[in-house]
Design brief:
Blueprint: E1 2-3, E2 10-16, E3 19-24, E4 27-32, E5 51-55, E6 61-65, E7 72-77, E8 80-85, H1 99-110, E9 117-121, H2 127-134, E10 138-143, H3 146-158, E11 166-170, H4 173-183, E12 189-192, E13 197-199, E14 205-207, H5 208-221, E15 229-234, H6 241-250, H7 252-255, E16 259-268, E17 275-285
Parallel strand pairs: 1-16, 4-5, 9-10, 9-12, 10-11, 12-15
Antiparallel strand pairs: 2-3, 3-4, 5-6, 7-8, 13-14, 15-17, 16-17
Length: about 290
């Protein structure tokens, strides 16, 4: 388990009874979390969040604003700045546990003996893109959602990285990689955050259990002769970190000398330091 500990603008206040209570900057949010099945702490901590996400009977949900707060606001992680918003499916536009991986990729990029080209697939609002660009890498940011791409560009600007070398591609990740193979384009590092299920801009269907291995095979083909790392993140329930590590070992690890490892990501509650699991990561590195 790797725990993100260096946040000032984020805090997991408490978790339990299928929910988590978080501080994002100056605003407190209450939202569901299926991993938090132990009892929550004192109820008074939970009574007056700025907003709460309530699930509906049809499987969706809606944000309810309890106290006054703006439509969007910003948080900072070291030199990186991100704009947040109450989004669908209980999201805010950022996954704070990923700071563990931002720190790792920053060290890998800055210690490289050459300019580094990074491909970020399923790149969402660009947390990893901003971190890699801040470390000095040239980044290709690929995501099927134009709306999320707009937010990623804004996060770059907020972080003072408007002049960074970042290319934004609204595309289906697997089809983009297949075209990069045909073009002969190469990257020194690849990051991917594949969803359990998704649709590309032209209706392409993505199912992680059916297509992740193929994506990793194709991705291995566009790595440079001396690649630095490959990072795969997953929030798919039931998909073990070891399974992703096995796929990395059979694709990237089979082609290049290096090592693979995998682990869960987590956040510690302020109330009692219990660890809330928050997905998993698998890495290959030179």
């Amino acid at each position: 388990m790797r725990i993100a500990t260096d946040w000032n603008d984020y805090e997991l206040i408490d978790a339990g009874d299928g929910e988590k209570l978080e501080r994002w900057g100056e605003f407190v949010l209450r939202r569901p979390d299926p991993q938090a099945i132990w009892p929550k702490g004192a109820e008074r901590l939970w009574e007056t969040p700025h907003a709460r996400y309530r699930r509906s009977n049809d499987g969706g949900g809606v944000w309810e604003r309890v106290l006054d707060m703006p439509k969007t606001w910003t948080v900072r992680y070291r030199s990186l700045v991100f704009r947040l918003e109450l989004m669908g499916f209980k999201h805010t536009g950022l996954f704070p546990e990923q700071a563990v991986n931002w720190e790792w990729m920053t060290e890998k990029i800055q210690s490289a003996t050459k300019p580094v080209r990074v491909l970020n697939l399923f790149a969402y609002t660009g947390g990893a893109t901003v971190a890699a660009a801040a470390a000095g890498a040239e980044v290709c940011h690929v995501d099927a959602s134009k709306g999320m791409m707009t937010r990623a560009k804004e996060n770059l600007e907020l972080s003072g990285l408007s002049d960074a070398s970042v290319r934004f591609i609204p595309d289906d990740a697997l089809k983009f990689v297949e075209r990069e193979v045909r073009r002969g384009h190469q990257y020194d590092a690849i990051i991917m955050d594949p969803p359990s299920f998704g649709r590309g801009p032209k209706g392409e269907i993505w199912k992680i259990e059916e297509q992740l291995f193929s994506l990793l095979e194709q991705s291995a083909s566009i790595l440079s002769q001396n690649p630095i790392f490959v990072l795969v993140n997953s929030y798919t329930t039931g998909l073990s970190p070891q399974v992703i590590e096995n796929m990395l070992a059979l694709t990237v690890g089979k082609k290049f000398t290096g090592s693979c490892l995998s682990f869960e990501l987590g956040l510690a509650t302020k109330r009692d330091s219990l660890i809330l699991p928050c997905g998993s990561s698998a890495r290959w590195e030179r």
